[in-house]
Structure formats: C-alpha cells, structure tokens
Design a protein that fits this description.
The protein contains six helices and 15 strands. It has helices at about 70-80, 95-105, 190-195, 205-215, 215-220, 245-250, and strands spanning about 5, 20-25, 30-35, 45-55, 60-65, 80-85, 105-110, 135, 145-150, 160-165, 170, 175, 205, 230, 240. Strands 1-8-7-6-5-4-3-2 form an eight-stranded mixed β-sheet. Strand 2 and strand 3 (about 30-35) form a beta hairpin. It is globular, with a radius of gyration of 17 Å. The protein starts with a strand and ends in a 7-residue tail after the last helix.
C-alpha cells in the first residue's frame, strides 16, 4: 500500500534560469533550466522537467520538478492546475516542496527515497521534508495509462515512468541522459568536471548515477524489455523517435560504475 505521511515545512530554494515550456506531444510539455549542485564548490548544471496534463480533468502532474520564475509559472498555469508532483530520481526533488506550498500539490516519491541536501545517503541524513505518498512498483499513479519501473538495486532508489502514448514516452531522471554537449545552463566548473566524467554524450546512461547509486547492470538492461519510442530525460535533450534503439548500444555495453 502507499504510505501517506505528514507534511514537513522546509526552506524553499529560489528559481533559477530556465527556458520556454515546449509542447512535445498531446498533453506533454518539456522545459529545461539550471540548478546548483549542493557541493563544497557549487556547480551549475542543466536539468529538465516534464509536464503532463490529464485530458479529462485538465490537471497537471510534474515529473522532475523544477521551480519556475513568476513568468514561467504564469505560463504553466495557462496549461492547467498543478495537482501532483512525481519524484522518480533519487538525487532530485529540491523543488517538490515549492509546488506543494504554492499550489497544494500532492508529492509522490519512490519508497526509500530521502529528501536531503547532500549526496551521502549512508550516514543517517536529516530529511528536510517528506513526500505525501511513497510509491512501490505496483502502486496506483495519478496519471492514466502510465507504468512505473523502479531500479531496486539503486541506492537511493531510482525509477522511470512510461506513458502509454505515441509509441511509448519514457521519462527518466538520472538513469538515461542525452547531453551531447554543454548547454547554456552548464557553468564553467561543471563543463570541466562533467566532461572528464563522461557526461557529455548522446544517448548515455548517467555516469554519476552509475558511480554513486551503483545500480545493477542487469537491472538497467531490463529497460530494453519496455516498449518506448521516445525518452524525456531529467538531464539533456528529448530523444524523439527511435529512442530505444538509440540507447540500446550503451545499455548493452559494459556500464562503468554499476555492479
């Protein structure tokens, strides 16, 4: 069963630079922007958010939430009322609480995910908030015709969300990425460090996720059991058309850092 927990008040972080909200499919939009990594030497990196509209109610669900500017929020509100936020990436979620406070949105996260400011999930970190509902692999979702796949071997847990439309639209967090080169939201330090770590590649399995969350390579390869034509990543550009076959070589290759 889903686990409903009490809300926790926490400090909200400001909006950062972002681009326009772009429609990709019927009732699906995508927006890219910047964030600062919570490190000793903060790095500015690029991230993405997906917006899904319920065709019947007109309500919105956000995946990989990103706080928008007031102008961006005005555009978002034109699409519908923000009702839900789904956290699929174990290292994401910093802006989930903003949408709960601003719109009263329900926050969904994967069981085992913890909201913390740092990357150390092993030393009893202090949570800055909790989700409203925690999801397991068979939990009902607030999106029609959607399937959740959880990487159980990942620490913290990671998931992908598959929308059953347009041949299959796969939404990812840190697992599948598509960043051929740094975009305008990537800072100088990040360009240097992330370049050395192998982040700037098309159709990539996230190097940081492999190194720090250490998912099982065999479990990652079960992505190929899913039917999808498109990937909307938490980092990088959308892959529209033929996405499964574009990602197949890297998924089937030796995944450096994974078990």
């Amino acid at each position: 069963m889903d686990q409903k927990v009490k809300q926790v008040t926490h400090k909200l972080l400001p909006a950062m630079a972002h681009g326009a909200i772009t429609k990709l499919f019927t009732n699906i939009w995508f927006v890219k922007g910047a964030m600062k990594m919570p490190m000793l030497m903060p790095m500015k990196i690029s991230r993405s958010m997906v917006i899904i509209k319920d065709a019947d109610s007109g309500e919105l669900t956000l995946v990989n939430s990103m706080r928008l500017s007031e102008a961006g929020l005005a555009e978002l509100e034109k699409l519908g009322k923000v009702r839900n936020v789904i956290r699929i990436a174990g290292y994401h979620g910093r802006d989930d609480g903003f949408y709960r406070q601003r719109y009263g949105a329900s926050i969904y996260a994967i069981k085992g995910q913890v909201y913390i400011r740092k990357f150390d999930h092993e030393s009893n970190p202090k949570e800055y908030m909790q989700a409203d509902i925690y999801l397991g692999k068979d939990s009902p979702l607030p999106i029609k015709s959607a399937q959740l796949k959880i990487f159980e071997s990942s620490n913290p847990p990671e998931a992908v969300l598959l929308l059953q439309q347009d041949g299959g639209v796969l939404i990812t967090g840190d697992s599948l990425q598509n960043t051929a080169e740094p975009d305008e939201y990537v800072g100088f330090l990040a360009k240097k460090m992330m370049g050395k770590m192998g982040f700037f590649k098309e159709y990539n399995v996230g190097p940081g996720w492999l190194q720090f969350a250490k998912p099982d390579a065999a479990e990652i390869r079960t992505l190929l059991d899913l039917e999808f034509e498109h990937v909307l990543p938490g980092h990088g550009e959308p892959v529209i058309g033929g996405a499964k076959e574009k990602f197949r070589p890297v998924i089937e290759d030796k995944l450096k850092g994974g078990h």
